[in-house]
Amino acid sequence: MLPFLTERFGNPSGSHAVAREARKALDEAREVVADFLGARPGEVVFTGGGTEADNLAIAGCHAVRPGAVVYSAVEHHGVLHACRALPDSRVAPVRADGVVDLDALTGLLDPSVRVVSVMLANNEVGTVQPLDEVARAVRTAAPAAVVHTDAVQAFPWLDVADLAQGADLVAVSAHKFGGPKGVGALVVRDGVEIEPIIHGGGQERDRRSGTYNVAGIVGMAAAMKETVAGRRETVERIARLRDRLADGLLASVSGAQETGDRAAKIAGNCHLWFDGIESEALLVLLDGAGVCASAGSACTSGAVEPSHVLTAMGVPAERAVGSLRLSLGATTTDADIDLALDAVPAAVERLRSTA
Ligand code: PLP
Question: 185 alpha carbon to ligand 1 midpoint, in Å?
Fold first, then answer.
């Protein structure tokens, strides 16, 4: 990225030599991104991240042909709120393991449906969704609809080019696979009509205006190359570390349980809940011990609210507030797992003894 922030700073939309240099880098990056997403270069629209890509997919397709939108109950807020902003949005429930209930989803489909959005992998509990089956159901019961998938969490772990073949629109975000923040992409398959949500100079074949973030896009392509080259080895190594972490915590902390079905999750997800504690307090203790974690709950105006994902999975509120998400990434080491295996039981113990 550095040359494009310093000496090769041209704007690819210009026509002089400096601009052409930037255009060449942009075109090369587009080819790489398209290839790893199973798309053609012209089908890639660069965005300012995953949230924008999700919004463009949903609002952009809805604007061309207004109608109903259907989304799974466990979508990221980028999809959830974009769908809820539309007049007819229908939510498809998930089963206790977090997988979308295909029968219930099919029951929401009819010829008035224009967009169906089901993520490839969930950001909170890691569940991988049966996208092919969703797409098949949509083609039969809602032939006028396009299928959007938020593959933001999936890309580091899964072959998105293969798994998202059945989708018309695919969103990714660079910072989930080692790239910079604030850059992402939306695949818009040829033939899918979309209205821009950002209007201006007509970049990206009039699908997304705004001067190109050349350094960010180049960085995203480089991160994709590295991710895909090492993906098989990373997934195997991280799944082993995740299993050691999850099994170790389940064995060492009484009243601990795992959320969802581990076999149906991406390798980097470890999501547990602990009886008799509140995760907000647990996070503070873990932060002090050098463990960066998050909770399956969000603290809103002082009250701990269970997350919409856990609620949709039928996890009772008193259990959801004691949940903990430990995410592993390509750089996670054995020493990190050792640290968490020491810190989490000690922190849970401390909270229980002071309750
Ligand atoms: N979708 C999912 C599943 C995510 O996990 C995230 C980020 O956390 C997003 C969308 C939003 O991406 P961005 O942070 O690039 O806007």
Answer: 12
